[in-house]
Amino acid sequence: MTEKPKGERPRHTATVRRTEWIAPSMVRVVFEANLDAPELFADSYVKLLFDGVQRAYTVRRLDRGELWIDFVVHGDAGLAGPWAAAAVAGDTLEFVGPGGDWSPRPAAELHLFVGDESALPAIASGIERLLADDPKAKALVFGEVAAPEEHYPLPEGPGVEVHWVYRNGGAYGAELVDAVLENPYPVLDVEAFVHGNADMVRPLRRYLLGERGLAREHLSISGYWRAGHTDEEWRDMKRSFNAAMESDVV
To answer: Which of 39, 48, 184, 231 is buried most, with the most CB atoms less than 10 Å from its CB?
Structure first.
């Protein structure tokens, strides 16, 4: 028997069951995946393999043998988007995972979620997890999309307040940062989940930790990608970017 190299995670194969366009630029691919996974985190992800190239995607749902992955589609650009847009039942894709490490803290009085399209599936999973524990849980959401018709389907609840921010052809993240800074900061025990474009993440990290004094352990924050950079370029520079971001607040 050939032993698996130490540290190498097993690969799985998922078969497409169906697809659904949930917004003009977002397609949900529902896979059949017989995966014995531990309990998922709200930010659980898998690494999809496209001809040997990996792309990390949030697990929107894993239940009863179905794995839901939501893909942003920008025409023919990239690897994953065009694949998902053309996917049909029976197509297969290999993946590694799931991984992840964050779920909302039930004791928090308010959960702040901030992100663009790349983070909206994880935000939806986080809200879903909150509402399952407490249907009246309070969540303040700032979601960035291209235009009003691109709204992503988020779970609803009496304590869920959603603010949509539209780029309308403008730069990623700029309006989103302004929307968060201009909103009155709640005088509550806050937990924050801030993910998406790195150039949006950095000023909001500085704001939340430096100006608002949010405890580091109550902040999940990461740049999933960076405008003007390929996925490979961003991975190569992410460590140095994170080090610079860390120096913003000591």
So the answer is: 48
The radius of gyration of the chain from alpha carbons, rounded to an integer in Å, stands at: 18
DSSP string, 84-143: HHH--TT-EEEEEEEE------TT-SEEEEEE-TTTHHHHHHHHHHHHHH-TT--EEEEE
**Model confidence pLDDT, tens digit, residues 171-192:** 899 999 999 999 999 889 999 9
- Using one digit for the tens of pLDDT, what is the confidence trace for 25-42? 999 999 998 776 566 899
Of 2.40.30.10, 3.40.50.740, 2.120.10.30, 3.90.1150.10, which CATH number belongs to 11-98? 2.40.30.10
- CA 150/CA 120 separation, integer angstroms: 12
pLDDT of residue 156: 96
Check pLDDT > 90 for residue 143.
yes
Residue ranges per structural domain of the chain: 11-98, 110-248
Instruction: Please name the fold of domain 110-248.
Output: Rossmann fold (3.40.50)
Tokens describing residue 16:
């497409």
User: pTM of the predicted model, to two decimals?
Assistant: 0.92
